[in-house]
Design brief:
The complex is a heterotrimer of chains A (508), B (130) and C (449). With 508 residues, chain A is an alpha/beta fold. Helices cover 33% and strands 10% of the residues of chain A. Chain A has 14 helices and twelve strands. Chain A has a seven-stranded mixed beta sheet, with helices on both faces. The longest helix of chain A has 37 residues. Chain B has 130 residues and is of the alpha+beta class. Chain B is built from three helices and nine strands, in the order βββαβββββαβα. Chain B is globular and about 35 Å long. Chain C is α/β, with parallel strands linked by helices. In chain C, helix 6 crosses helix 7. Chain C is globular. In chain C, 64% of the residues are buried. The chains are: A alpha/beta (508), B alpha+beta (130), C alpha/beta (449). Chains A and C meet through helix 2, helix 3, helix 4, helix 5 and helix 6 of A and helix 1, helix 2, helix 3, helix 4 and helix 5 of C.
Chain lengths: 508, 130, 449
């Protein structure tokens, strides 16, 4: 049975949390500027806690099950990270405090910048971007500013391989760049001929996802970077797939000029049901002066007795701020903790075992599902979710059926260059038993697809909710509960009786 | 797949029906099938506006995709289908009839020569199916 | 540790794959750069890292030990215990974006509640599932208004009393576009009210942006500005403090077309500047122009009311280079925090917190103004933040206050040349009468003692 909304649970007069009465002499309220209604629920604390706890139980999550979403790196989020971020000495620091009173926070940010530089092979890092796409925007604006500083305004063309991440084209367009798509070659690498044809004096840069969204490390990466540089362009790295590269290879060593890290993927800060993320950007030496303003620097060197004085410094040719304050500090604490707990060997082990897990699953599934690019994969791989003998079955049906086996489905229908794509990223934190159970389920589903396709078409069956009417959602556009929270007693709602119930929500 | 013989087609899956010097524009049966259930249509072009070949004149959205509709030919818009945004689903049911999008007074009928006829368009659709 | 493999697991898996060693899986990586030695400190245990972090944390002074009169876009409010109890549920914080609605109804229904609460609070029809923060929400409003008119109206008028970091963020975001920003140049008069922006509106303007209360704490009625904007064919965006909306008229009442805001005051810790929450609400007619995720109501195939991400065809992964924004990750968990916060406070609690802020700020303002040499900068109505002119530079005042464990206000000289003697003071419900009296006494001492 569906959960009630708060506009149905609210009862006038109930209060969740009380506040003290004013302890100061009162000032008259500004009559003409007061609002006449405040549409907020009225619930006791237990009602609120029970409501959201019950909602939480309708979610699949890493803490409750395997989550092999390709390119999302749904690894375990260590609990110590959560404790660390909530230490009062971090959680209650105001971002505009005098720097002398925030040296612990600034020292942590400075150290994280240094570690990310070392891990990525870069000369400078900004922690400011709020998410991966925000880091991309920052990176492309840096590329734009770099060319303009050299009097090369005409460099506005950004090359994006067809195996790159989905946000790249929108990011480039938002930065005033023109997007040209590059095709992949039959081995899943960037097609060097296609690249050659685009290398001219309008080239601003290439956005490279490596390993790409097929999970493949580009075998010609050094050649690709060399050609772009020779044409005067820069190479942007989409670091969403860094979980394959920790201690394996540093993007900066391969010649990449700028790269964003996803702290919420590689460095285990939680995804939070869609955010917050954190997308620091690393740059090579020639781009350090263009980083967003400000970055954390050392204002006065320390000595044996005193630590250095950390503060905010302003890059000379900065593209400006990309958000208010200093970035998602709470995520920096978690990422710092994660890097510190691993050390250099531990970081390398993350990527080694992420790649081991992916190749193990690939080995277990390759005889059952078509593998369009047959190579050793990195941290993820892409299968086709279709068989000629089961024409009515699509990747979507396999995805939905996996839920009945209590697994979150892989990313599906991406990348676009594979038909009926199923993109699987197990991460390093899953054990062999979990991987085997998942492989067994995938093999069982393949069997069902041929013997009992209807059980896939109508899946999921075991979940609290079935397939959704997405057309109805997009047409009706009921986007909020428009009712007055104080209107009535809770309504009883029966399964399947939705049409007849007087709804507190209504179409726009 | 329905491909009326009397229309001209573009690679972006628009059709244009020419009567005298007036063209009527919409999207093809193939396009609506690729998009699946259409939930939203917005006509961007407005009457008396002069548009070039390839300028956007409408936006079409389904739950899984969005598509711009581009002018197959240039000219001055004479009318737009004002009732279409209220019933976007007719793009699925009657793409060549009730779901027309704009009418245009052609500025250069020569542009029609660059478009596909029904036979060429059918071949083009089949190629993409493979 | 977080990698569960035993040596036996590893060997068995390598055998299944058909390679001998882990290193064999990395043959595609250029040999010359493979397996670099990372100059990082060696690993610590959980116990050791917590000790190290506690040391770092203790070297910060915080709004808990200090009496905090600092605001300027981030505020020290009380967070009920129930908020973090819900945020700590692994089912919420270790879930991904709810792309699979059958097993993500918790997140989806919570966002639907968030959209409802914020739409109601701002007086708008619809609200998206959040942007990164208050600054980027304004930048997205600019982006939306520019695209709403298909680039034919390139001018955006920014109020000079919009938060300086928000204005700077808008400048960064619009670097690659044809948007022209006006209204907040060095010649702008920050003392003037919003109606001073009206002469800047014309047929090339797509948007005018103001803040409510503004950066200096002042509260204005925007009705005349909204009418002028609409007359010129432009939209009005208001960046609002959501706690103030517990008491004051919502921007929707003035005719605003877009309401953005920094949602941090709604149950989100200061956390040295983030993660916070970008509020973004608008009118029905612009729903398809709004960037960011949206949750809509529908039914599942069993007839149950349910929720899905909807209007996704506008988003970057489908429209690609034709999308108007690249936003994808939002502030989901922070939106949940604000939802639980508003649910716990409810109608009465939110109003009460807003009144406490108003009352204490006014008591503080009177007290500070009574100190010889100090005076209020503006007579305009304010909510919980106001500007005082000091007899000595604001930086010096703050230094001396800090010696008394008081975190003073924001030194406006940092952003506004000529305002070096001006302090922006914020007073929330966390401040007691005694704190305010101590502040007033300390100001008397430090400037005259």
């Amino acid at each position: 049975m569906a959960e009630h909304l708060m506009c149905e649970l609210s009862v006038p007069g109930r209060v969740g949390v009380r506040f003290p009465d004013p302890d100061v002499p009162t000032t008259p309220l500004p009559e003409g500027m007061l609002r006449d209604d405040l549409p907020m629920p009225e619930m006791a604390e237990i009602d609120v806690i029970r409501y959201f706890t019950r909602l939480s139980q309708l979610n699949h999550s890493i803490d409750t099950g395997f989550y092999p979403l390709g390119s999302c790196t749904m690894k375990y989020n260590p609990k110590v990270n959560e404790e660390a971020a909530r230490l009062p000495g971090f959680a209650f620091v105001h971002p505009l405090q005098p720097i002398e009173t925030a040296q612990g926070a600034l020292a942590l940010m400075h150290q994280l910048q240094e570690w990310l530089k070392e891990i990525g092979g870069f000369a400078g890092v900004s922690l400011q971007p709020a998410a991966g796409a925000h880091g991309e925007l920052t990176g492309v604006l840096i590329i734009r500013a770099y060319h303009r500083s050299r009097g090369e305004k005409q460099r506005t063309k950004i090359l994006i391989p067809d195996s790159a991440h989905g946000t790249n084209p929108a990011t480039s367009a938002m930065s005033g760049m023109q997007v040209v798509e590059l095709r992949s070659d039959p081995r899943g690498n960037i097609d060097l001929e296609a690249l050659r044809a685009e290398c001219d004096e309008t080239l601003a840069g290439l956005m490279l996802t490596n390993p790409n969204t097929l999970g493949l490390f580009d075998e010609n990466v050094e050649e690709v970077v060399r050609r772009v540089h020779e044409a005067g362009g820069l190479v942007y790295g989409d670091g969403a797939n860094m979980n394959a590269l920790l201690g394996i290879v540093r993007p900066g060593d391969l010649g990449l000029d700028v790269l964003h890290y996803n702290l919420h993927k590689t460095f285990s800060t939680p995804h939070g049901g869609g955010g917050p993320g954190s997308g620091p950007v690393g740059v090579a030496a020639h781009l350090v002066d263009f980083l967003p303003d400000p970055v954390v620097g050392i204002l006065e060197e320390g000595d044996e007795e005193d630590p250095p004085l950390y503060g905010l410094v302003h890059p000379s040719h900065t593209i400006g701020r990309v958000k208010a304050f200093h970035g998602h500090f709470g995520m920096f604490v978690r990422a710092y903790t994660y890097i510190r707990v691993h050390g250099p060997e531990g970081l390398r082990a993350i990527s080694e075992y992420a790649v081991l897990n992916a190749n193990y699953l690939l080995a277990r599934l390759r005889d059952t599902y078509h593998l369009p690019y047959d190579r050793v994969c990195m941290h993820e791989f892409v299968l086709e979710g279709r068989w000629p003998e089961a024409p009515e079955i699509h990747a979507l049906d396999i995805a939905k059926r996996l839920m009945d086996y209590r697994f979150h489905p892989p990313t599906n229908y991406f990348p676009l260059i594979v038909h009926e794509a199923l993109m699987i990223e197990p991460t390093e934190t899953e054990n062999k038993e979990t991987l085997d159970a998942f492989a067994d389920a995938m093999i069982k589903i393949a069997e069902e697809a041929h013997t009992d396709p209807e059980v896939l078409k109508s899946a999921p069956h075991e979940t609290p909710y079935g397939r959704m009417d997405e057309v109805r959602a997009a047409k009706a556009l009921v986007l909020c509960c428009v009712a007055d929270y104080a209107q009535k007693e809770p309504v009883e709602m029966e399964v399947g009786d939705r049409e007849k119930t007087s709804s507190p929500t209504q179409p726009l | 797949m329905n491909i009326p013989p009397d229309l001209k087609y573009t690679k972006n899956d628009e059709w244009v029906r020419v009567e005298g010097s007036t063209g009527t524009v919409g999207i093809t049966d193939y396009a609506q099938e690729q998009l699946s259930d259409i939930v939203f249509v917005e006509i961007i072009a407005s009457p008396d506006e002069a548009l070039k070949q390839g300028d956007p004149c409408a936006t079409v959205e389904s739950v899984k995709a969005a598509a711009e509709v581009y002018m197959p030919v240039g000219g001055t818009i004479t009318s737009t289908n004002e009732s279409l945004p209220d019933k976007p689903e007719i793009v699925n049911t009657d793409p060549y009839g009730e779901a027309w999008m704009v009418m245009v007074e052609l500025s250069d009928p020569g542009e029609l020569d660059g478009l596909m006829d029904a036979e060429a368009y059918e071949k083009y659709c089949e190629e993409r199916e493979q | 540790m977080y990698i569960p493999h035993t040596a036996a697991d590893r060997e068995a898996m390598l055998r299944t794959i058909g390679v001998e060693r882990l290193e064999d899986l990395f043959q595609d990586v250029p040999a010359g750069h493979r397996f670099p030695d990372l100059a990082l400190p060696p690993a610590l245990t959980e116990m050791e890292i917590m000790a190290e972090l506690q040391d770092l944390a203790l070297s910060n002074e915080t709004a808990r030990e200090l009496v905090c009169f600092l605001g300027a876009g981030a505020y020290n409010h009380y967070i009920p215990a129930g908020v973090d109890a819900i945020l700590r549920r692994g089912e919420f914080y270790t879930a991904y974006t709810p792309y699979q609605p059958e097993i993500s109804q918790g997140t989806l229904q919570a966002i639907f509640e968030y959209q409802s609460l914020i739409a109601g609070l701002t007086g708008m029809d619809v609200c998206n599932a959040s942007h990164y923060d208050g600054a980027t929400a304004v930048a997205e409003a600019v982006n939306m208004a520019y695209h709403n008119f298909r680039g034919k109206r390139p001018k955006v008028v920014l109020s000079p009393s919009l938060h300086p970091s928000y204005r700077e963020t808008v400048r960064t975001y619009t670097r690659g576009s044809d948007v022209v920003l006006e209204g907040d140049g060095p010649e702008a008069d920050v003392a003037a009210g919003p109606d001073a922006l009206i002469p800047l509106l014309d047929e090339t303007t797509c948007l005018v942006v103001v803040q409510y209360p503004d950066f200096f704490g002042r509260v204005y009625d925007f009705t005349a500005l909204a009418e002028a904007a609409h007359q010129a064919g432009a939209l009005l965006a208001v960046s609002a403090n959501p706690i103030a909306l517990g008491l004051l008229k919502p921007p929707g009442d003035f005719g605003a077309d877009i309401v953005t805001g920094e949602g941090q005051p709604l149950g989100i810790p200061l956390s040295y500047g983030g993660p916070y929450l970008g509020l973004f609400a608008t009118r029905t007619e612009y729903v398809r122009k709004m960037a960011g995720r949206l949750v809509g109501e529908t039914i599942d195939n069993r007839g149950q009311r349910a929720y899905v991400l909807t209007l996704t065809a506008r988003e970057q992964h489908i429209r690609r280079e034709r999308a108007t924004s690249n936003i994808c990750t939002n502030q989901g968990l922070m939106a949940l925090a604000s939802t639980v916060y508003l649910s716990l406070l409810g109608r009465a609690g939110l109003r009460k917190v807003a009144e406490l802020n108003y009352q204490k700020a006014h008591y503080a303002a009177r007290g500070i103004a009574s100190v010889p040499g100090f005076e209020l900068w503006s007579e305009q109505l304010f909510f919980n933040e106001f500007v005082v002119r000091c007899p000595i530079p604001a930086a010096e005042v703050n230094e001396k206050l800090l010696e008394h464990d008081i975190l003073g206000g924001y030194d406006l000289g940092q952003d506004f040349p000529g305002m070096e003697d001006y302090l922006l003071v914020a007073v929330t419900e966390m401040i007691t009468r005694e704190d305010i009296d101590t502040l007033v006494e300390t100001l008397e001492e430090v400037t005259h003692g």
